[in-house]
Amino acid sequence: MPGELFRLMKQSIIDGDPEAARELSLRALGEGISPLDAINNGFVPGLHVVGQQFEQGEMFLPDLVLAGEAMKAATSTLEPEIHKVGATRETLGKVILGTVKGDIHEIGKTLVGTMLSASGFEVFDLGVDVPFDTFALKAKEVNANIVGVSALLTTTMTGQKNVVDALERHGLRPHVKFIVGGAPVTQSWANEIGADGYGKDALAAVALAKRLVGV
Amino acid sequence: MQASLQLLEPSLIDRILAEAFELIHQRGVTVQAPEAVELLASAGARVENGLAHIPESLARKAIETVPRDFSLHTRAGEPVVRYGAGRVHFDPGSSCVHVLDPDTLEHRMSQSADLVRLVQIAEQLPQYAAQSTAVVCNEVPKEIGDLYRLFLVLWYSDKPVVTGAFSPRTVPAMIDLLASDSGGHAALRQKPRAVFDVCPSPPLHWSEFAAQNMVDLARAWVPAEIVSMPLAGAAAPVTLAGAVVQHAAECISGITIHQLAQPGAPLVWGGAPAIFDMRSGITPMGAIETTMLNVSCAQVAKSLGLPTHGYLLGSDSKLVDAQSGQESGLAAIMGALGGINMISGAGMLDSLACHSAEKLVLDAETIAMAQRALQGVQARTETLALDMFAKAGAQGDFLKIPETRKLFRLEQHIPSKVIDRGSLHSWEQGGKKDTFARARERVQELISSYKRPKISSSVEQSLHAMMGELATRAGMHHLPGV
Questions:
Q1: Which end of chain B is more exposed for a tag (fewer CB within 10 A), N or C?
Q2: Looking at residue A172, what is its pLDDT?
Q3: Rounded distance, CA B59 to CA B256, Å?
């Protein structure tokens, strides 16, 4: 009975348990439950709980990150089945993320990715030390809505400007939104390089991304 | 007895080192500079898929050749900073991107004038044994940002400098500036004035720049300070002991690269280890665990007899307030008692992002108190109390006796007016000022009393000419702050 299964799915996200999430996804497929139904009514409510508790200060980053991992385990198990029947999962939009060339700092960018996925965006994380053009090429390839570039160093932050230039060169602006983040980044820097926004932390990045896609 | 604080049992230090040696050998360390990789490989490290596997015997041999102590010198050649040998020094934090505006309380982008102000203040406070290149000068082209900061510090200070480069391109020019100030490269090598911070990336990653910087500094015989920064729970194990293992592994692998490039070149086991705030994702410099990590990492180095550095006194508060006082106070006392040779971070707010001149003068008071605690309780007189009782007479009037006048300055740290110990009445009469208001006044006093050190005109001309040429090449046609 899906009710009980959905409850367990929700709990697997709250517990941050990727193994359980994968098993429950397989069980749902075995029982003939629609994979879209499993994601939207089983797992996503768990994400809502985690997001809410995080904002209230009752859950912390490790809870959030592991909830994200559990969600990833569920969607990677269920999505091939969704594609098989020709359906697509509705997301809030596609976001390309990466840390700019010359910079290998990962944590902030990965957190933003986790938070965006958890909030319903489809995230393409290009990793660290990403060449400027790669952002534009990937954005073109997947028809992205937003490109987000992280930089932790004052010396690599200038690379964010090169990325927005690359987006221009590839004719992606202004319909692909461009956002920046990282410790030395400020709103005035974002304005200076013509970014569409800056988030001071992962939560702010989610709010910004939602605003930019009109949610 | 000098007071001291130890957080690690000897058996725990043994386990930390054993795991650190195992990590750099079994798991390996990412080393991206070809020259450093070559040094490691030809000395017997196995290099596969960008990971250098460093055998313990090779690392131990490198540790043996690190000098146990060395000094940094003033412009006049006085060895005022002694790394190793149980000494504790403090310097202001480095590389902030903001300063706290004392009028508006805004965190605004830092510029050359802000660096000059901070240097002028630190120059007059004996609590700061060294200067630092405290803030980024945002109006200066980024490609010369690091060397311009060093130039300004040399221009306005006689003290030693804790500094660092932002890219491999500027390192030779920075060393040339220092050499020009010291009277040539040989003189600089003999009496180094600056130490360069070099940061591996957690976990266990020496970027091309960091690894090459270690090699270049060693060959130039310019002291290097490893600033390893495990972030416990994010880019390092969440346990303090686990993060200390990672810190040791990063330092030991750095030492191996450095000493292979030039055995005997001066080097510091340092860092900015911190926990990771699980709510905000920042690195809380004011957390007690961050302080515990710094003290523990230094304790591991001491067990090997190596010079030490730590990053303390930075506060996470955005203002000079009760939180910043509490955080910096705890860190100063623990860092001092932990016997860390150089403690960087005074003046900092907002983790490591913002500098405040007002906090710098307040931290100086905290540091003086920590240094006092470090001296411990001493028997300064033949009898501890009996003779003084005999002299004080039946009334016990100790204010009158010569010992009091002779010894009170040794026994007591006399704070500046930043610390209010007056009566309620005098506080009311003085305008009911809080700490921040008193610190602002002290900053004004120090700025007015500052006198630029005398620099010989030939040195001054050569510094100015070198910097002028580098600036012009970067498209900056004047020297801001000069």
A1: N
A2: 94
A3: 5
Regarding whether A78 and A108 lie in a shared domain, the answer is no
- Do A154 and B281 make contact, defined as CB atoms within 8 angstroms? no
* A–B CB contacts, 8 A cutoff, strictly below: 42
Answer yes or no: are the C-beta atoms of A212 and A145 closer than 8 Å.
Answer: yes
- B interface with A, Cβ–Cβ < 8 A, is 95, 97, 109, 136, 142, 145, 166-167, 201, 205, 207, 231, 233-235, 276, 278-281, 353
B300-314: average pLDDT: 98
Per-residue pLDDT of B87-119, as tens digits, reads 999 999 999 989 999 999 999 999 999 999 999
The pLDDT of residue A1 is above 70: no
Q: Give domain status of residue A89, yes or no.
A: no
> Which of B97, B149, B277 should one mutate to test binding to chain A, selecting the residue with the greatest count of A CBs within 10 A?
B97
pLDDT band at A68 (very low <50, low <70, confident <90, very high): confident
Cβ of B234 within 8 Å of Cβ of A60? The answer is no
What whole-number percentage of chain B has pLDDT above 70?
100
Structural domain of A39: 2-84
Long-range pairs of A17-23 with CB within 8 A, sequence gap ≥ 24: A17/A66, A17/A70, A18/A66, A18/A69, A18/A70, A18/A72, A18/A73, A19/A73, A20/A70, A21/A70, A21/A71, A21/A73, A21/A74, A21/A77, A22/A73, A22/A74, A22/A77
Same domain, A15 and A78: yes
Domain closes at, from A61, A84, A107: A84
pLDDT band at B85 (very low <50, low <70, confident <90, very high): confident
Which CATH entry fits the domain spanning B64-375: 3.30.2160.10, 1.20.1740.10, 3.20.20.480, 3.20.20.70?
A: 3.20.20.480
- Same domain? A51 vs A114: no
Looking at the complex, report in whole angstroms how far the Cα of residue B146 sits from the nearest Cα belonging to chain A.
10
Q: Do A107 and B145 touch (CB under 8 A)?
A: no
